[in-house]
């Protein structure tokens, strides 16, 4: 065996021995992340931001939840007490890095629109947040307040009642209870005065769902294709995986995750030139994403371009938020440097 083949065998043995493969010994994959951290306090979301049962998050978030958590606090400050228009611009930039808006980003968008006075846009954003997270405390409170300012008291009432049921703060419960009693009295007086109970109150969350929530639907469709592709990669059905990723890219032409995964499908099928094109496109779209740099490194490793592989893994480590994954990437580089004398 030639010296470079020995180095490759050692490199692959190191990666596989580390337990990092998701498709067998021929695919020493990127380190998988721990469960995603809990949502920031006050976001209204319960439990983990992601689940280890979600293969897209498990395969691709790789610190993305940490980055989301790190980027939200300054945006929250802008949305609640700073420059609301700047908050909206920051949310636009943040959501470009996400597969679809989250309940947290939509709730902050609602708050920013509310402060600017764009009440209809605020109501829509809060309603979309509740479509994703029906027990989001802040979104129920924000939507109730917005609807009251719009004069839509009947619609506001159920959200005030839900806010009362969800809030753990005694003072907030007392305020919500008083507001509900006053609102119920006004609604009842209005109904009596008109001689009719009045029309059934509209539900802005259902209204938003009825509109199709196209961005959310599109995000869900992309997510479904990525889930399918990862399952197909695990089953070593690389061409079928590429087909699912082609569909994901057709739906979301700037989704870096889809390009990185399609690069993986090409690499595992032996199409290294096509794999490199997709990996580089993923890096162009998401230069902060460690996953795409890992894929670049694995392509270089398959080409026996060991210096390039080391450089790519180093770059991935610089972008990795999870300390354990960062340490594993450093270990890869140390092993390769020791084996190649670089």
Description:
With 342 residues, the protein is an all-alpha fold. The chain has two domains: 3-38 and 217-340, Tetratricopeptide repeat domain (Serine Threonine Protein Phosphatase 5, Tetratricopeptide repeat), CATH 1.25.40.10; 55-210, Tetratricopeptide repeat domain (Serine Threonine Protein Phosphatase 5, Tetratricopeptide repeat, Alpha Horseshoe). 72% of the residues lie in helices and 0% in strands. It is built from 17 helices and no strands. The chain has helices spanning 3-17, 55-61, 64-81, 84-96, 103-116, 119-132, 137-149, 153-166, 170-194, 204-210, 214-234, 238-251, 256-268, 272-285, 290-302, 306-319, 323-340. α6 (119-132) packs across α10 and α16 (306-319) packs antiparallel against α17. It is elongated, with a radius of gyration of 25 Å.
Q: Look at the structure and give the mean pLDDT.
A: 74
**Domains, number:** 2
State the CATH superfamily name of the largest domain. Answer: Tetratricopeptide repeat domain
CATH class of the largest domain: Mainly Alpha
Radius of gyration of CA atoms, rounded to a whole number: 25 Å
Order of helices and strands: HHHHHHHHHHHHHHHHH
The largest sheet is:
none
Give the DSSP E fraction (strand runs of 2 or more residues). Answer: under 5%
Number of helices: 17
Proportion in helices? over 70%
What characteristic shape results from the CA principal axes? elongated
At CATH level 2, the architecture of the largest domain is: Alpha Horseshoe
Say how many strands there are: 0
